[in-house]
Structures are given as structure tokens and as C-alpha cells.
């Protein structure tokens, strides 16, 4: 029995699949990449370039495949899949990292309770019809009550109880409730603008409630004076009445009295006369002028047109 | 620049959601644009590259006057409109004949660019050999030590990996590995060696790109032959286009933008347990897959340990018994010895308790 032949044959087989290089090849299995850091051999390169390039590519491919075939595999319906490790080369991302969204109220509850998401199928087995029907959508099972031609009605039901309408309204209400909850989730997920602890919708609501409460506290027969204050209620701020001091200087008294006298001299002014006096309108009736110039559209439209006309003359840049 | 689109139906909403940033990204879509004068060679090369890049490739049919190194605004607009991460701009001028520029984007802004000139090429049609199925992932092979040391080649390597294979995948069907794309350089000129490349990167070699060795891109299909061992022997057949490129201009990424682009998502618990992440001391995953920790307790003085008290084992007990015998004449018994004395004590104690 000459074992050396068998050994030599085995050696040869092993040699055929292993690659020997000065610097070992770096393999990044995650990206299916192999890098050969050995310097390019000038003589072989000049002698026969394509052959040389193919030979070093073959060595690289051999090393990479050896690494890939040694990875753990899982079976799948298409055949064995090799589990790839995470890649070692760092490549830049194409888009920035996503911002983590806060979980919704349901998601928090489900996490706390340990409820998992179950995927529902679109088709559902209908025992009566003995076939698969859609759960929702065209001819969906959720519209059965609205479609069926006869419904049982309770004995004490209204004369004009419409079961079809009732079923439809219930379905629409469910959709509306879901949409409202979705909007609330989105609003909760939106980050509050910078420094909005005292402003914003919830703060406004709080202020509104406080104001209403203050009004209700004084809307009793004795204006809230003799009501017992509950614990937690703050003292209501009243309007502070300011009285002038009894002794004022002679100069200030004189100026005050002269002001009263000058007011007595003047004609009583009405709103209409005030506005027409402030604008020098003896010559031009501004209101009528705007109306005719804007052809009834108003001053805002006139201003817009004036601004737009100037802008139109600029040449727009080529795309 | 672009108006934000509000989705009006479920389909457009799905498209918008697909474009949102994700933790693990999709492969980059490349847009192939032609400049005012591209030329026959550049046109054909871009077509072949698109064939290798399918299906994540878009080709613009019209010619556009775009100069990537001067004005990047058109590129930004197109990337936002088409949700593309890479561009290949083909242009041929008298000063720069048969030029192609690879542009990479981050957050719809230009990250970095690399211009190459196509010196020589052979079409896929000239190789009368079977081709790999489009859409399959290629294997990549980089051959030269300059890909590690020279910054321009490091950028080129990163750009080409992103172009061909930029997707992170968990598992791959080994039978689907059909082709390999090999990128090799010419021999390193003697003026450049490992010592000088990193030092002089910004000075002489960058200004004079003609001293840099040429880039050869070759594509081969793989044949696996039986070898008797579990790993098959690999044989290559030239398949696809073969390109000889020379490096021209380039722009490096802005440091701030690059830092943002290189941000990684936080490692999840499963990854830490697998062994990634910072090495945490005293934690290890044993063969069963359980996470085991070690608690180090300080040195203990066993003499001072608090244990259950057993009176009989107390140190000064014998002396005490001898004294008790002398005191109480009733209990003195020469024959009984210790046991009787002990019983006597117990009886006495019970009497006391009662």
C-alpha cells in the first residue's frame, strides 16, 4: 500500500484551490470584495498584459470564493444561502440617518403588554358562501350589513330605523376615528418648535381654560366675594384702582386745567371727520381713486400687480 | 428648490415613503448624463456601464450642458427629482477627450467627484462569450497596493464599490455569483512608493495626474470546477467590457459633509451580543449562545466570616465546663465526664427558663 501517492494527490487538490501570495489578500465578504495589496509585477505586465490581469483576477476570485464557501449557510426554498458578515469597508451613506420617531400611544401600550403585530390576510373564509371573500375593498365582507336585502330588527326598534344607514354610518365613524387618531399621533410626533413651552396649541388651551374658570368664579350672585375658596384655586387678580394723590404741584394742576379748557373749545369730532382730516383729501378722494385704478379689486391687488410687473422684466436663469 | 409634494393618493404616498432615509440603505441609483459633446466612445462606454448597473440606473436621453466641476446645481436638482445617489457625466472636449466624471451625492448635495479619461476599451459584443445575467451582484477585485495608500485610489476604490456593490445584504445564494469585475492598476512608477504617497499626496502627484498609473477594468464570468475539496476551483472567462482609464481631476469631500455621511446607526442589542461593538469586559457569549457575565468579589478573610453559630464548637468551651464542675457539687461526676455535665447544664437552664 503506497500511501504517498494518495497523499500527493490530496496535496495537489489542495494546491489547486489555495492561493499563495506574499501579502495575504484582504477579503471583505460583506461587499463581495477582495483586495490584492501585492504590487503589480512589471515584467509579466509588460509581457502579456491580459493574461497577467486574468491570472491575478483568478487568484483573487479563488480566495474570495474560498471565504464565501466557508460561511455558515441557511437553507431556503431556492437553495442554500450563505450568511454574509457585516462589511468591513466603510462607505458613505447616500441620505442622512433617519431621525428616530417616538412610538405612538398604541405602540407604547403594545410594547408594555407584549403584544406582537399580526399580519391579516386580505381574503377571509366565508362559511355561508363557502368561498374566500375580501375582508375589505370591492365586495368586501365589511360591507355585508349594508348590502344584504334583509336584516333582523329588534321588536322595540324605531319605525324609521334604517339598518343599512346605521351600518354605513358606523363604518364611516370608525374610519373617521382612525383618521383622527392618526392625526393626533402625527401631531404628537412633530417636534415642538424652539421654545414653545408657553405658546402653542396646548398652552393656548390652558390659558383659555384658566380664563373661563376665572369668569365662572365671579359669575355668582355676589360676584364671587363670599364663596369659599377650594384648595388648589389661586387667588383671583382684581383690577387695581389707581387714585391720584390729594396734593399735586401747582404746575401740574395748572397744565391739567388748561388742557380741559382747550378741549372745551374744540368741536366734538366724529370718526368720519377724523379720518378725512388726517389724509389731505380735499383734492383727492383716495377711496374712489383706488377703486377706479384697481377696477374694483382694491388696494392689495394694485400693490401685487405693481410688484409683479417689476419682477416679470427680470430674465429667469436657464435650467 | 423643489416644491414638497403632498401625496394625493396611496400610490404617491408609497413612493414618497420609499424615498425616506432608512437605516440600511438601498443601492445607489446612478444617472448617466451626456454633456454637450460626448462622442461615440463615451456614449458606448456609458451604455455598457449601464448594462452592468441595471436595474439601478437611469439614462438621460437628451444632452445637457453640465459642468460638474464648476456648477453642481443641476446635479443637485436631478438627484432630488430622481432620487439618485450617483452620477456618471460623459463629456469629450479637445482638452479632455473621452472624459467621464463619477459624482457621488449625500443628502442630494455633491459629496465627491472623480474624472477619468477612457483611453482604450473593448465592447461586450467583441467578446463572443456567455454573459452574466443582468441584476446579479458582481464580485469585485482590486489589485494594487496603491488602493490602500494613495488617497486618490482610495477614493476611486470607494467610488467603484459604491457604484457596483453598494448594498448591505445578509445572505447570498452562492449559485448566483456569476461574474467578477477586476480593477487593477499599472505597475507603480518608481517615484511613487508607500513612503511618499501619503506624504506628498497633496503636493506634486495631485497636480500631475499623468504620473499616476493607469486603471484597468476587466469583467470575467466564473466557472466553478470540481476540485475534490469543498471549495471549487475557479476559472475565468473574459466577458464584459474592458476599459483602460486614466485619472484626471477630482474633488475631495467636504470634511463636515463626509463626517455626516459616515455616521452609523447605533448598534442594537443583538449585534452587541454577537460580538460587535466595543469590547465589554467580563461579558461573553458561551457556546450555547447565552450571555454570561463575571462578577469579581474582593478578597475575603475567612476567619471573620459570619456563619451559623454552633455553641459546641466555641473555642473557650472546655475551660468553661471545667469551672462549672468545680462550682456545682451536685453535678460533679467523675465517670460521666463531659456529656453529663452538658446535660446538667441544659437541665439547669431549662429550670431557669421555667
TrEMBL record, chain A:
<feature type="compositionally biased region" description="Pro residues">
    <location>
        <begin position="83"/>
        <end position="103"/>
    </location>
</feature>
<feature type="region of interest" description="Disordered">
    <location>
        <begin position="238"/>
        <end position="319"/>
    </location>
</feature>
<dbReference type="InterPro" id="IPR007023">
    <property type="entry name" value="Ribosom_reg"/>
</dbReference>
<dbReference type="Pfam" id="PF04939">
    <property type="entry name" value="RRS1"/>
</dbReference>
<comment type="similarity">
    <text>Belongs to the RRS1 family.</text>
</comment>
<keyword id="KW-0690">Ribosome biogenesis</keyword>
<dbReference type="GO" id="GO:0005634">
    <property type="term" value="C:nucleus"/>
</dbReference>
<comment type="function">
    <text>Involved in ribosomal large subunit assembly.</text>
</comment>
<feature type="region of interest" description="Disordered">
    <location>
        <begin position="175"/>
        <end position="210"/>
    </location>
</feature>
<protein>
    <recommendedName>
        <fullName>Ribosome biogenesis regulatory protein</fullName>
    </recommendedName>
</protein>
<feature type="compositionally biased region" description="Low complexity">
    <location>
        <begin position="292"/>
        <end position="301"/>
    </location>
</feature>
<feature type="compositionally biased region" description="Basic and acidic residues">
    <location>
        <begin position="253"/>
        <end position="270"/>
    </location>
</feature>
<keyword id="KW-0539">Nucleus</keyword>
<feature type="region of interest" description="Disordered">
    <location>
        <begin position="75"/>
        <end position="108"/>
    </location>
</feature>
<dbReference type="GO" id="GO:0042254">
    <property type="term" value="P:ribosome biogenesis"/>
</dbReference>
From TrEMBL, chain B:
<dbReference type="InterPro" id="IPR039770">
    <property type="entry name" value="Rpf2"/>
</dbReference>
<dbReference type="GO" id="GO:0005730">
    <property type="term" value="C:nucleolus"/>
</dbReference>
<feature type="region of interest" description="Disordered">
    <location>
        <begin position="1"/>
        <end position="20"/>
    </location>
</feature>
<dbReference type="GO" id="GO:0000027">
    <property type="term" value="P:ribosomal large subunit assembly"/>
</dbReference>
<protein>
    <recommendedName>
        <fullName>Ribosome production factor 2 homolog</fullName>
    </recommendedName>
</protein>
<dbReference type="InterPro" id="IPR007109">
    <property type="entry name" value="Brix"/>
</dbReference>
<dbReference type="GO" id="GO:0019843">
    <property type="term" value="F:rRNA binding"/>
</dbReference>
<comment type="similarity">
    <text>Belongs to the RPF2 family.</text>
</comment>
<feature type="compositionally biased region" description="Basic and acidic residues">
    <location>
        <begin position="315"/>
        <end position="329"/>
    </location>
</feature>
<keyword id="KW-0539">Nucleus</keyword>
<feature type="compositionally biased region" description="Basic residues">
    <location>
        <begin position="1"/>
        <end position="16"/>
    </location>
</feature>
<dbReference type="GO" id="GO:0000463">
    <property type="term" value="P:maturation of LSU-rRNA from tricistronic rRNA transcript (SSU-rRNA, 5.8S rRNA, LSU-rRNA)"/>
</dbReference>
<feature type="domain" description="Brix">
    <location>
        <begin position="28"/>
        <end position="256"/>
    </location>
</feature>
<feature type="region of interest" description="Disordered">
    <location>
        <begin position="310"/>
        <end position="354"/>
    </location>
</feature>
<feature type="compositionally biased region" description="Acidic residues">
    <location>
        <begin position="330"/>
        <end position="343"/>
    </location>
</feature>
<dbReference type="Pfam" id="PF04427">
    <property type="entry name" value="Brix"/>
</dbReference>
Amino acid at each position: 500500500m503506497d500511501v504517498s501517492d494518495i497523499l500527493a494527490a490530496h496535496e495537489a487538490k489542495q494546491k489547486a484551490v489555495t492561493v499563495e501570495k506574499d501579502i495575504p489578500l484582504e477579503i471583505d465578504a460583506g461587499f463581495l470584495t477582495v483586495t490584492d495589496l501585492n504590487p503589480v509585477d512589471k515584467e509579466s505586465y509588460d509581457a502579456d498584459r491580459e493574461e497577467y490581469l486574468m491570472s491575478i483576477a483568478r487568484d483573487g476570485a479563488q480566495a474570495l470564493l474560498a471565504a464565501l464557501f466557508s460561511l455558515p449557510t441557511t437553507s431556503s426554498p431556492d437553495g442554500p444561502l450563505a450568511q454574509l458578515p457585516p462589511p468591513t469597508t466603510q462607505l458613505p451613506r447616500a441620505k442622512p440617518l433617519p431621525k428616530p420617531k417616538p412610538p405612538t400611544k398604541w405602540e407604547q401600550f403594545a410594547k408594555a403588554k407584549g403584544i406582537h403585530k399580526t399580519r391579516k390576510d386580505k381574503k377571509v373564509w366565508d362559511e355561508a358562501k363557502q368561498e374566500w371573500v375580501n375582508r375589505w375593498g370591492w365586495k368586501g365582507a365589511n360591507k355585508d350589513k349594508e348590502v344584504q336585502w334583509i336584516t333582523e330588527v329588534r321588536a322595540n326598534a324605531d319605525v324609521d330605523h334604517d339598518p343599512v344607514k346605521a351600518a354605513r354610518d358606523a363604518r364611516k365613524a370608525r374610519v373617521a376615528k382612525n383618521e383622527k387618531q392618526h392625526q393626533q399621533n402625527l401631531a404628537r410626533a412633530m417636534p415642538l418648535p424652539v421654545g414653545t413651552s408657553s405658546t402653542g396649541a396646548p398652552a393656548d388651551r390652558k390659558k383659555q381654560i384658566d380664563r373661563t374658570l376665572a369668569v365662572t368664579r365671579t359669575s355668582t350672585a355676589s360676584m364671587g366675594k363670599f364663596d369659599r375658596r377650594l384648595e388648589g384655586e389661586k387667588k383671583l387678580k382684581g383690577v387695581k384702582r389707581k387714585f391720584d394723590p390729594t396734593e399735586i404741584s401747582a404746575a401740574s394742576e395748572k397744565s391739567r386745567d388748561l388742557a380741559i379748557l382747550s378741549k372745551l373749545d374744540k368741536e366734538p369730532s366724529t370718526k368720519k371727520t377724523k379720518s378725512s382730516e388726517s389724509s389731505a383729501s380735499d383734492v383727492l378722494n383716495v377711496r374712489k381713486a383706488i377703486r377706479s385704478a384697481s377696477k374694483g379689486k382694491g388696494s392689495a391687488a394694485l400693490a401685487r400687480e405693481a410688484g409683479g410687473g417689476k419682477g416679470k422684466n427680470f430674465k429667469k436663469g436657464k435650467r | 428648490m423643489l416644491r414638497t409634494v403632498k401625496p394625493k393618493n396611496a400610490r404617491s404616498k408609497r413612493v414618497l415613503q420609499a424615498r425616506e432615509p432608512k437605516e440600511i440603505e438601498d443601492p445607489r441609483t446612478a444617472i448617466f448624463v451626456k454633456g454637450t459633446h460626448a462622442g461615440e466612445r463615451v456614449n458606448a462606454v456609458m451604455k455598457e456601464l449601464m448594462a452592468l448597473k441595471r436595474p439601478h440606473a437611469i439614462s438621460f436621453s437628451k444632452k445637457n450642458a453640465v459642468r460638474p466641476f464648476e456648477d453642481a446645481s443641476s446635479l443637485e436638482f436631478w438627484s432630488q427629482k430622481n432620487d439618485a445617489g450617483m452620477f456618471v457625466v460623459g463629456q469629450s472636449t479637445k482638452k479632455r477627450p473621452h472624459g467621464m466624471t463619477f459624482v457621488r451625492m449625500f443628502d442630494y448635495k455633491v459629496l465627491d467627484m472623480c474624472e477619468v479619461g477612457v483611453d482604450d476599451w473593448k465592447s461586450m459584443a467583441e467578446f463572443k462569450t456567455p454573459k452574466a445575467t443582468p441584476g446579479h451582484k458582481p464580485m469585485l477585485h482590486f489589485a494594487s497596493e496603491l488602493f490602500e495608500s494613495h488617497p486618490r485610489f482610495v477614493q476611486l476604490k470607494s467610488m467603484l464599490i459604491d457604484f457596483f456593490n453598494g448594498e448591505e445584504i445578509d445572505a447570498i445564494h452562492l449559485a448566483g455569483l456569476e461574474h467578477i469585475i477586476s480593477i487593477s492598476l499599472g505597475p507603480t512608477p518608481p517615484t511613487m512608493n508607500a513612503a511618499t504617497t501619503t506624504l506628498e499626496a497633496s503636493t506634486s502627484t495631485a497636480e500631475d495626474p499623468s504620473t499616476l498609473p493607469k486603471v484597468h477594468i476587466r469583467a470575467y464570468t466564473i466557472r466553478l470546477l470540481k476540485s475534490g475539496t469543498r471549495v471549487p476551483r475557479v476559472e475565468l472567462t473574459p466577458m464584459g467590457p474592458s476599459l483602460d482609464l486614466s485619472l484626471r481631476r477630482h474633488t475631495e469631500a467636504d470634511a463636515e459633509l463626509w463626517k455626516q455621511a459616515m455616521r452609523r446607526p447605533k448598534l442594537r442589542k443583538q449585534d452587541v451580543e454577537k460580538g460587535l461593538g466595543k469590547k465589554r469586559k467580563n461579558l461573553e457569549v458561551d457556546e450555547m449562545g447565552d450571555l454570561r457575565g463575571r462578577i469579581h468579589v474582593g478578597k475575603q478573610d475567612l476567619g471573620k466570616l459570619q456563619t451559623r453559630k454552633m455553641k459546641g464548637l466555641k473555642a473557650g468551651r472546655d475551660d468553661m465546663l471545667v469551672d462549672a464542675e468545680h462550682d456545682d457539687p451536685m453535678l460533679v461526676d467523675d465517670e460521666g465526664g463531659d456529656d453529663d455535665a452538658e446535660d446538667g447544664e441544659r437541665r439547669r437552664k431549662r429550670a431557669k427558663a421555667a
